[in-house]
Amino acid sequence: MEKNEAKILIDKLRVELTYHNHKYYVLAQPEIADYDYDMKMKELQKLEADYPEFYDANSPSLRVGSDRNEEFLQVKHKYDMLSLSNTYNEEELRDFDKRVQKLLNDTTTYVCELKFDGTAIGLTYENGNFVRGVTRGDGVFGDDVSANVRTIKSIPLTLSGNDYPSEFEIRGEIFLPHKVFEQINKQKIAEGDAPMANPRNAAAGTLKMQNSSLVAKRGLDCYLYYMLGENLPSDSHYENLQLAKKWGFKISEHAKKADNIDKVIEYIEYWDKERRNLPYDIDGIVIKVDSLSLQKQLGFTSKSPRWAISYKFKAERVSTKLLSVDYQVGRTGAITPVANLEPVFLAGTTVKRASLHNADQIELLGLKINDQVYVEKGGEIIPKIVGVDEALRDASAQDINYITECPECGTSLVRVEGEAKHYCPNEFGCPPQIKGKIQHFISRKAMNIDGLGEETIDLLFSKGLIKDIAGLYDLKKEQLTPLERMGEKSAENIIKGIEASKNVPFEKVLYALGIRFVGETVAKKLASAFGSLEKLKNATFEELVDVEEIGDRIAQSVIQYFQSEVGKDLVEKLTQIGLQFEMAEDNIPKSNILEGKSFVISGVFEKYSRDELKDLINNNGGKNTGSLSAKTDFLLAGDKMGPAKLEKAQKLGLKIISEDEFLEMIG
Ligand code: IVH
Predict the structure, then answer these.
(1) Residue spans in the chain of domains classed CATH 2.40.50.140
(2) Could you confirm whether 651 is annotated as catalytic?
(3) Full DSSP string of 167-193
(4) What is the pLDDT of residues 110-127, one digit of tens each?
(5) Active-site annotation holder among 40, 115, 421, 508
(6) 50 CA to middle of ligand 1, Å?
(7) What is the pTM of this model?
(8) Which of 255, 301, 390, 639 has a CA-to-CA distance to 109 between 20 and 30 Å?
(9) What is the pLDDT of residues 328-365, one digit of tens each?
(10) CATH number, domain 506-587, options 1.10.150.20, 3.30.450.40, 1.20.200.10, 3.10.290.10
(11) Residues lining ligand 1, judged by CB closer than 6 Å?
């Protein structure tokens, strides 16, 4: 490979991995399977080793991902919270064993454990009492989620016995058992919310909820697998875990000692099959050197211990026939090709359909109709096609001609440069897009119109009773009662619900409009920054991007919406109808004392929460911006602010003020 080619590839992988790190650790919404992530990481590590001249201290290969959430108190781990290096085959595992033997000059006993697929936690105990629970974060600092941890019933708050060290930490994995996960998703679907992708995301998301009473209802569970401290009772990791079990911790009964690597491999083979009968997810096996003194001798690399390794299971894979491809049009007009498969049994369910994501994916796989394809269930609910058995291709194979027109409305599809998906641009004339907009409008987090659900909207739309959002407000009870399964009472409720929606506050109305990229949070920010639809409609691009968290893409989309004929027309109609297009009195700026001044808030404060401080800034005419720049006037600094931010503020010569100084400013 040419040097410049290598550089391009390294840069590309760094950007990709940083993006996926953020998705996984910060947002708990991974987009790719762990295996694919690990392969990319391995590729980057190899390139970086081959081309040391492109060293970068910020490369994602040099850190363990981050799940730091600014709202929780940041705590420094007493012992760095590292991750494990992964292997995917026997050969790599035997290499690990050889390395260990070489470094120790001897054979050694291993402990084999299940690799629980949840989210890591470090629990500190002093004199037998739970002190705090901290997430991994970036491995050095984590979030103090003690309040949430205390709600997990399998975690002891006081220990039994008297032979535990006066101070120690025990690490483990917080997870959601299958049953609980299914219950939560059932409830989410019933309430019109999107279901969660898998138990791991659900556990990570739950642990980071700000309201611990909600956490308590979620049924989280926790297995502990690693003890740290100055005076641990035994030199054997296995023995320490058995003692921890006596003190009240939940320790897996499946941990097993193995005298040699063959025994380790037997254990792996057993669990690769048996894992399907466990009531929770595991994604591999962890192998650890049992003796703590030998662990110490082996030490750590910058990322992971040399005394342990994880063996990751491959996702389950089956082969079946690709019968045809359908194309679905989403609420936003995005086209998703969907494969129809000959039904096949995979990881507990019968699979008939698989997502193909986009046209590139079909091309990349080289798919043809009637091909024998491999299907896998990764982290997502919907299985995917991961390959084709070309050797089995016969004369019946047919090319897939990707559609050029919308299957719903016939409009020519477009593909924006840099985006993978094709779109139907007929935003206001394509039935699923119109219906989608209405469904979004009435949903719980938007206008929350009682009595109306997706099915009713489908029905009203197909009968021609509503053509757009505004049409909802023209509905009469007499039009509803003749509909299937619609009683007098339900019809009345719907009309009442629609009428009541006229009081829904501005920020929700703004969200309900379904402007591209304007989600719940963005709508709130825009509503409080501009105060009324009138002001927002007339905002310039610069004024929009000046608002915290509003980037170019959102700003452009907002401008486009209010300039479009349909957007203008709808907003006009809804204004006539009497929806709330102004912030309620309370939230309108109270003074202009901070006019023209922009603030960045960082850290933890004594008197006010960060959100309250943001409101105070807005209410007094100032602006909040998300990141520091030469345009920032003040850095409002609390406790535990990141050192990088402080340094940057000093470099930029910004004024750094405390909470008290700020409160003085606004009188
Ligand atoms: S030991 C220094 N044991 O896997 C290594 N980790 O990539 C300490 N995990 O961050 C970790 N089950 O969240 C260990 N039996 C087990 C585990 C386990 C799951 C997770 C843990 C860790 C990650 C490693």
Answers:
(1) 317-397
(2) no
(3) EEEEEEEEE--HHHHHHHHHHHHHTTP
(4) 999 999 999 999 999 999
(5) 115
(6) 29
(7) 0.58
(8) 301
(9) 998 889 999 999 999 998 876 788 999 888 999 899 89
(10) 1.10.150.20
(11) 82-84, 113, 115-116, 120, 173, 225-226, 286, 305, 308, 310
